[in-house]
């Protein structure tokens, strides 16, 4: 990569390659929004934002970048949480936004697939599926603005991974421009194709370091017709893990959501949100929000009531309620969804996006709580999240009287403690959000040299000039 | 790779590295079974068969091979259909059998995972899951002898892919020895881990060309408690595709098997198998065997009866029956499972393991039938298979009076016709069985130079000396 930055001639050629209205220069007032991550945590500089409207334009851009050694930063909806979509501060990296490639190309309901441009928002993708009587199951808080290409590149998760998998599992094929500017048409809609290496899943989750995804074949599913939602007070986290196994057994694997909530977080939500109230009569240290969906109605509620009743008899569950209406369902979901916001109202927080094997979640919660409270008396752990996938957002609210900045200065120290426990349990320090620039150095501590070596060898083989999203992931 | 073959010193060092009783020389009468594929279609020669009993022994072997440029051929249960597990005829390639690494290492029912050695048979894996009240869903005809390492390396499929995916989808993590002899411990049991490239799925389906898989974390599922099996006569293949969509919709995606059978194959089965009889009263050109499974009983049969009844009313289905007992279920399955054998009794056959998008199966069947009968009057197409995955075994039985060898001499000509149609419909010339040596040349016609270029770049980066399963896949 050319560290001194692209020449005026290179920038001019790149702008031409992006086509009419395809380039924004630093004097454009529209440029700012590409340079800062939405929470303001990551900033960058760029000499040029390119907005190609076709795969051929993307290829022309990448060929010039390859020839001139110009670093490219692919950007989708700019909703990523680890800085992967933001250029560095050198002002030498060119942003390639996919936002003008935003069409649903084709929908094939009988093959349960859809081909979409990388710049389609997740919501557009969901809506196109729904209007064809199908479900595209991936759902995220940012779905109105995040784009499919970014969702694939970061292998995004969300609340339905337990049932349907992460984005990497939901993509059958890709179209991408490789680091040498070649277009790879891998838009296969096949369920079975044993003809070589799985390049689709290699590019998925690669955070734009192996090429620019321009289109994708995504899997569709039957739309569920029946949904039952339960909120339960638990004996302890071990009871949560066992209840999940029972519900999966009773339903035949139809649990779509299984989220744990600590009493500490539950209390914050009740305190800060008007109208939020405890739907149960039995206080507890731990709660779960569980949802089960099916194609056929009539048996789901009975199954759930029976399973919860047995779990109460066996002492796993202390109390439970089932939503009786869509309003009640929304109220139960709000108890989970308002956790982050409630925590924000309580002062500064230090966050962890970690996963461990589901069976190790109880040990993780105990060990991590003990360790952080020993290191910082008064700190308030507010763990919650996708226990069904082993993915816990082990967040810490500041001690009540502490200075917020003094607390935040302990971010790395707290991360080190929690991530060490995660590693000892065979877990991951980035379950959902990726590496980007945020965890690029830290990952070297937790991933083996062997694995990093393989990743670097692949990167060097496909992108010898290091032009694709330089400084991210590796 | 050293084409002149390993020296006596190298062979001796390799034998030592394999540990006590870990090496078989050409003078051993046990050697023969490693050198021939079970149908006798692929033969090879070797100076040495190694049977290491630990990952460390495998690593020691690969380090010596890397140093000396010795080609290694990993072998599992030797059940592959494309020659990937058989050395070439040069006598220079050393076989590494994983058969002595055959333990189930750990089972974690609450994480729904199991760690198994690469040399475990598929059946051992299924049984270990079942004895922990879980399902390992992959099922193949060869499950008593095929081994997990081979099943992963070939990304094997089978009859439950529609519901649970292929082997690549069923593996969460791997342990493997890389071509430089390093051990990669990627035995992660995590559902969510966004920390870099997906090496697990890169090695899965790589046919042993990127390393030797020694262990795997496989996914487990709840055991279904209810199963309903239907056999239906259809209006035409389009009706099959539409019926599948209706059953998936009605069941919420719980169809586990959906196999199409042509009348030509059905008749062969009825003719050649004593006791086989048509369970329906309405003859048809096309039939399907469909199975739906669920965790809860009591609603599944009603759902299936209603869906089939509606399909009869709408003219998609001409007649249908549901199994009333396990005996009846077995009889319906036999109609499908005896197809290959029935075809064998009818003379020579030319086979195709192809897939197209599910929605394109009707067009494929029509075009392929027209084309082969135009090219060879009297040829009898006997298409059947996993229509739910778009994977059709488009087999051809010889014209009745034709000389079998004269018919088989047309194998490549028939393949060219059928594969050309498959390619025009966006399909794959190897849906399940892989490339191996059988389709290594042909794949160059059907895969883009761009994609082959990426595959070769990855291969060269990870195995610069080309010692891992030389001459296979690429």
Automatic annotation (TrEMBL), chains A, B:
Q: Does the keyword Flavoprotein apply?
A: yes
Q: Which residues form the FAD-binding PCMH-type domain?
A: 42-223
Keyword Flavoprotein listed? The answer is yes
SUPFAM superfamilies, A to Z: FAD-binding/transporter-associated domain-like, FAD-linked oxidases, C-terminal domain
Q: Which cofactor does it need?
A: FAD
The protein's superkingdom reads Bacteria
Q: Which Pfam families match?
A: FAD-oxidase_C, FAD_binding_4
Q: Which keywords appear in this protein's UniProt record, sorted alphabetically?
A: FAD, Flavoprotein
Q: List the Gene Ontology MF annotations in alphabetical order.
A: catalytic activity; FAD binding
Q: Name one GO biological process term.
A: respiratory electron transport chain
PANTHER family named in the record: BLL6224 PROTEIN, D-2-HYDROXYGLUTARATE DEHYDROGENASE, MITOCHONDRIAL
Q: Which family does it belong to?
A: Belongs to the FAD-binding oxidoreductase/transferase type 4 family.
Protein name according to UniProt: D-2-hydroxyglutarate dehydrogenase
């Amino acid at each position: 990569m050319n560290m001194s930055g692209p020449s005026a001639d290179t920038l001019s050629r790149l702008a031409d390659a992006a086509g009419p209205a395809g380039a924004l220069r630093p004097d454009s007032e529209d440029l700012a929004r590409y340079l800062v991550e939405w929470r303001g945590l990551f900033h960058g500089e760029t000499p040029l934002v390119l907005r190609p409207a076709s795969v051929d334009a993307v290829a022309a851009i990448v060929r010039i970048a390859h020839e001139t050694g110009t670093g490219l930063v692919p950007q989708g909806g700019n909703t990523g949480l680890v800085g992967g979509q933001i250029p560095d501060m050198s002002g030498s990296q060119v942003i390639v936004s996919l936002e003008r490639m935003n069409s649903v190309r084709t929908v094939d309901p009988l093959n349960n697939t859809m081909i979409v441009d990388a710049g389609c928002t997740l919501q557009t993708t969901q809506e196109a599926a729904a209007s064809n009587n199908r479900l595209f199951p991936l759902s995220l808080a940012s779905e109105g603005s995040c784009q499919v290409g970014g969702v694939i590149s970061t292998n995004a998760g969300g609340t339905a991974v337990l049932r349907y998998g992460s984005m990497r599992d939901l993509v059958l094929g890709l179209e991408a421009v490789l680091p040498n500017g070649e277009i790879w048409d891998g838009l296969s809609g096949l369920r079975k194709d044993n003809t070589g290496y799985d390049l689709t899943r290699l590019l998925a989750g690669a955070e734009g370091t192996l090429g620019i995804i321009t289109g994708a074949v995504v899997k569709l599913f039957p739309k569920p017709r029946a949904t039952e939602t339960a909120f339960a007070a638990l004996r302890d986290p071990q009871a949560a893990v066992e209840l999940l196994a029972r519900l999966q057994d009773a339903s035949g694997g139809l649990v779509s959501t299984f989220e744990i909530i600590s009493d500490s977080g539950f209390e914050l939500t009740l305190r800060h949100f008007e109208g939020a109230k405890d739907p149960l009569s039995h206080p507890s240290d731990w709660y779960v929000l569980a949802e089960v969906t099916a194609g056929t109605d009539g048996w789901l509620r009975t199954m759930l009531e029976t399973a919860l009743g047995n779990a109460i008899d066996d002492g796993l569950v202390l109390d439970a309620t089932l939503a009786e209406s869509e309003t009640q369902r929304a109220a139960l979901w709000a108890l989970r969804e308002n956790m982050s916001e409630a925590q924000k109202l309580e002062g500064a927080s230090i966050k962890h996006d970690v996963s461990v094997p589901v069976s190790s979640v109880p040990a993780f919660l105990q060990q991590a709580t003990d360790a952080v409270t020993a290191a910082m008396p008064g700190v308030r752990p507010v763990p919650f999240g996708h226990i069904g996938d082993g993915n816990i957002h082990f967040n810490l609210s500041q001690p009540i009287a502490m200075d917020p900045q003094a607390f935040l200065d302990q971010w790395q120290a707290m991360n080190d403690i929690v991530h060490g426990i995660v590693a000892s349990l065979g877990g991951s320090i980035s379950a959902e959000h990726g590496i980007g620039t945020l965890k690029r150095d830290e990952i070297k501590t937790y991933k083996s040299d062997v694995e990093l070596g393989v990743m670097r060898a692949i990167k060097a083989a496909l992108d010898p000039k290091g032009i694709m999203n330089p400084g991210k992931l590796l």
